[in-house]
User: Which sequence fits this backbone?
């Protein structure tokens, strides 16, 4: 998530069409050792969306991270047109590198309809402007931050992210596993619902596993911990813009068997619940890890 600005983030999702229903995506040059999970989710969603009528936005996707992706190798996306119904469209997308599947996803799209409505209330949170941005956090905690944590914070230049309780996220003690984060993409983006949905998919993977570690007084920067996303589910309830402030309220209801379940709700600043997320991740103690 280290793009210098929104234009490069948008370009990351502009897939190359190889042939009908087949696309190719690339990773940014400054990626880490593995493809960021949110990138695979977002690029697969873009590939699937290109095969769906524009009047049917995505409302849900479910994906599995099969293998760690290599950021130095292009990713090929193959879309299967599972069903085109009167109201819903279903697509399956397979992402491969060197002939091996690294990510698989199924997504559902629906024409807009009216119906019964209710939603959870947004939790109380301070205004994002009252919270330190990433640069202020680095200066505030520079003497105590692990090198990996400082690098992680610095890489988010395309994303304006404000941790509601940064001390808990960076230096946790045993406590209930929950956290809240305000986020938005820096700079104005086009008025394109499909683009904003894809960027939300990209950003929805961030910090979820760390939420499960907080209850144990750990972070993803602890060398004793091996973490990886196993699957990812996203439900988009309403229209949204990722270049405007969104509150990501995260919670982990369970962990066991070297896995942890995390959930998230994403609200607009005026309190609308616009998306829900669920993810299971690998959370393994390295001293008991098995190959």
Assistant:
């Amino acid at each position: 998530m280290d793009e210098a600005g929104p234009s490069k983030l948008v370009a990351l999702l502009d897939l190359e069409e190889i042939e009908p229903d087949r696309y190719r995506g690339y990773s940014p040059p400054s990626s880490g050792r593995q493809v960021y999970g949110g990138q695979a989710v977002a690029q697969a969603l873009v590939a699937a969306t290109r095969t769906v009528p524009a009047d049917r936005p995505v409302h849900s996707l479910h994906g599995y991270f099969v293998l760690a992706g290599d950021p130095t190798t292009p990713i090929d996306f193959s879309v299967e047109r599972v069903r085109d119904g009167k109201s819903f469209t279903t697509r399956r997308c397979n992402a491969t590198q060197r002939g091996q599947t690294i990510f698989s996803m199924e997504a559902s799209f629906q024409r807009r309809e009216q119906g019964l409505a209710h939603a959870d209330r947004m939790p109380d949170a301070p205004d994002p402007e009252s919270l330190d941005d990433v640069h202020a956090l680095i200066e505030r905690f520079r003497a105590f931050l692990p090198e990996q944590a400082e690098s992680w914070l610095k890489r988010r230049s395309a994303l304006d992210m404000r941790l509601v309780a940064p001390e808990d996220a960076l230096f946790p003690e045993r406590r209930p596993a929950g956290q809240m984060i305000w986020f938005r993409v820096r700079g104005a983006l086009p008025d394109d619902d499909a683009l904003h949905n894809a960027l939300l998919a990209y950003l929805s993977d961030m910090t979820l596993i760390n939420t499960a570690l907080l209850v144990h007084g750990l972070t993803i920067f602890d060398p004793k911990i091996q973490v990886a996303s196993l699957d990812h589910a996203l439900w988009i309830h309403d229209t949204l813009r990722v270049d405007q402030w969104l509150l990501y309220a995260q919670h982990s209801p369970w962990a066991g068997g070297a896995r942890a379940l995390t959930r998230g709700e994403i609200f607009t600043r005026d309190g609308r619940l616009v998306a829900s997320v669920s993810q299971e991740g690998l959370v393994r103690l390295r001293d008991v890890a098995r190959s």
